[in-house]
Amino acid sequence: MKMRNVLLALGAGILTVASQMVLSEDDDHGKKKGKWFERSTDVARVENAQYVKECGGCHFPYQPGLLPERSWRKVMNQLKDHFGDNAELPAPTHEQVLAYLVTNSAEHGNYRRSEKILRSIAASDAPDRITTTPYIRHKHDELPAKFVKGNVKVGSLSNCTACHTKAEQGSYSEGEIRIPGSGAWED
Amino acid sequence: MKISKPVLIMLASLTFSGAHATAVSELLQKYETQGAKQFNAQAGKELWTRSFGISKEGKVRRCSTCHTDDLRKAGTHIKTNKDIDPLAPSVNNKRLMEIAEIEKWFKRNCEWTLERECSAQEKGDFLSYIRMQ
Question: How far is Cα A56 from Cα B96, in angstroms, rounded to an integer?
Fold first, then answer.
């Protein structure tokens, strides 16, 4: 009797694990991924007040998990000409922001989109724009220009929050997209 | 509790001239030691509205391109579209409070607008103009 209970419990356990593995298989539209320690967001949220203040003062504070460490080092090395603007920081602040970026870059944690971005970039490459990484380019390649460049409320692919309504929470699911003037986006 | 006369005068002057007075007067003193002469709010205003050429994106290099001509209004970053809170201390009490912040933004924004760092004289004139807004 005792042995039977143990076997039943074991069997139930195996079934539960197996069903979770199936449910959590990586799928481009869902958020689960095939790892034991799942996270519910696409990329880790930004929870660093200094980063939000220093970088978010001029633009959406992009999650560090959207680029690999080598890209962030490159960006931080070029703040004198930051895509046409001077964005230099005083030395101590520079070091602190850089440390935050490299300890939270795409290589860290267990986040679905971060890993996809990372895998899409050639090892020899260090893109300094999130929008030029192959994964992000591929995800936006069907978008007509009128939704982005030709849309005054968007202007550029770098304006994540214009369409991704939960970008600030690190969530970029298709179902959360609302293109200003056009509504939801269907693939 | 008895408050000494100098402290009372200091408190009163803070109340009348706004809390941003400390950071600004310290900076103005510093700019004087760097060779600046009498500061002039009118010269600051003239610099604020002056055009310094055209940027690569085809925008006029001028303070008001992003901050607008009325410092009490919110502006917009011309490249990222992000809102910029008003600069005028009369409507935004977070402005002109920290020396490091003021210097950081002078460095960044003079480099874009004038394509060089601002001189001590220019920065002092700007501050004299902005603090009155």
Answer: 19
Confidence (pLDDT) at A107: 96
Residues A101 and A131 occupy one common structural domain? yes
CB-CB contact of B99 with B27 (8 Å): yes
B83 at A interface, C-beta within 8 A: no
Domain total of chain A: 2
Q: Is A60 at the interface with chain B, CB within 8 A?
A: yes
**Count of C-beta atoms within a 10 Å radius of residue B91:** 14
Residue A155 touches partner B, C-beta closer than 8 Å: yes
C-alpha torsion sign, points A143, A144, A145, A149: negative
Residue ranges making up the domain that contains A19: 2-38
Would the CB atoms of B112 and A86 count as touching at under 8 Å?
A: yes
Query: If pLDDT is split at 50, 70 and 90, which confidence band does A183 have?
Result: confident
Give the lowest-confidence range in A32-41, A113-122, A174-183. A32-41
Q: What digits encode the pLDDT tens for the residues A78-106? A: 999 999 999 999 999 999 999 999 999 99
Does residue A43 form part of some domain? no
Contact between B82 and A86 using a beta-carbon 8 Å cutoff: no
Q: Confirm or reject contact between B79 and chain A (CB < 8 A).
A: yes
Which residues does chain A have within 8 Å of residue B55's beta carbon, measured at their own beta carbons? 84
Look up residue A176 and give its DSSP letter.
Answer: G
- Would you state the structure tokens that stand for residue A138, as one six-digit string? 């591929």
ipTM of the complex: 0.77
Residue % of chain B over a pLDDT of 90: 77
Determine, for residues A84 and B77 on separate chains, whether the beta-carbon distance falls below 8 Å.
Answer: no
- Whole-prediction pTM value? 0.78
**Domains in chain B, CATH or no CATH each:** 5-130 (1.10.760.10)
